TrEMBL record:
Organism, scientific name: Panicum virgatum (Blackwell switchgrass)
Transmembrane segments: none
Name under which the protein is recorded: Ribosomal RNA-processing protein 8
Purpose: Probable methyltransferase required to silence rDNA.
Principal location class: nucleus
Single Gene Ontology BP annotation: chromatin organization
Compositional bias annotation for Pro residues: 33-45
GO cellular component, one term: nucleolus
Root EC class: transferase
Length: 290
């Protein structure tokens, strides 16, 4: 038993398919709202004519070339911000299988999603993935890790099975995380860092339970607002209780971060899944248009 007291890793290199990857950030539809992506520009309406300072009403000189390209940049950013929000909402409101099929149909959307995610995460004072990486580094490098919704592999010495919806990196297994190709009782740590997105998230945790060794760790970071009953989120106690009923014990909970909560569970030596588990619904984290 140990209460994990992590500190930020800060400035770590993020993995990325074909480059650096920093992944998404969800914000609550109601509570904590870190700066979101900008709203798409209303392209149908032309910009209002500028008035000359002398009040003659004649159109001002055309903007310089530099201004035009920065305007285009802004418009592009707004459009991709809108696209990201749409994809984010999709992931929070469909099943894992639907999400998998959706990205399989057009894998380029996955990059759109992660570009928006990186932008959102850049506003968080602390990245949960860094806390988890530090936790892993303080423990056993020989532990095998299953990283559901991958993030940690390039930053730890452990053997890591990275699982995600899309893969253009041979080290990432593309699948719906409710059904991984991993062997039963084959990993020591299962990580879900902001990845319990699908409406069938309990199936992801059941899968983690299947692949975890007895006494294996289940580490979950989730957006705080999804687990804030005062704002339509789930009761964190109920969430923990459901996972305990799955056959785990709660070792510690870290609530000191503004944007997310971390749970450290351990699979019981002789874990027994309760007959019926009352899983709370986790509130989707939708970004507001601004
Ligand atoms: N853990 C990373 C990324 C979080 S974004 C980090 O903290 O930075 C959530 C990730 O979970 C996305 O990459 C998304 O594709 C993945 N994901 C969501 N639902 C999934 C599912 N059903 N199966 C596999 N991956 C899923």
């Amino acid at each position: 038993m140990e209460p994990p007291h992590e500190s930020a890793a800060g400035g770590r290199k993020r993995r990325r398919r074909g480059g650096d990857r920093n992944r998404w950030k969800p914000s609550s539809s109601s509570q904590q709202e870190p700066p979101p992506a900008a709203a798409p520009a209303p392209l149908s309406s032309p910009p209002a004519k500028r008035r000359r300072k002398d009040g003659t009403g004649q159109a001002a000189a055309a903007p310089k070339r530099g201004n035009t390209s920065s305007l285009l940049e802004k418009m592009r950013a707004r459009l991709s911000g809108g696209h990201f929000r749409m994809l984010n909402e999709k992931l929070y409101t469909c099943s894992g299988q639907d999400a998998f099929d959706y990205f399989k149909n057009d894998p380029t959307l996955f990059d759109v999603y992660h570009t928006g995610y990186r932008e959102q995460m850049s506003h968080w004072p602390e990245q949960p993935v860094n806390v988890i990486i530090n936790w892993l580094k303080r423990h056993n490098a020989s532990w095998t890790v299953a990283d559901f919704g991958c993030a940690v592999a390039k930053n730890v010495e452990n053997k890591v099975f990275s699982i995600d919806l899309v893969s253009d990196d041979p080290s990432v297994i593309a699948c719906d995380m409710a059904h991984t190709p991993l062997e039963s009782s084959s990993v020591d740590v299962a990580i879900f860092c902001l990845s319990l997105m699908g409406t069938n998230y309990p199936n992801y945790l059941e899968e983690a339970n299947r692949v975890l060794n007895p006494s294996g760790w289940l580490v979950i970071a989730e957006v705080r607002s999804r687990l804030d009953p005062n704002n339509g989120g789930a009761d964190p106690e109920k969430f923990s209780k459901a996972i305990i009923q799955l056959g785990f014990s709660l070792v510690s909970k870290d609530e000191k971060n503004k944007m997310f909560i971390l749970f450290y569970f351990k699979k019981k030596e002789k874990s027994k899944v309760a007959k019926s588990i009352d899983w709370p619904q986790l509130k989707p984290c939708l970004y507001k248009r601004r």
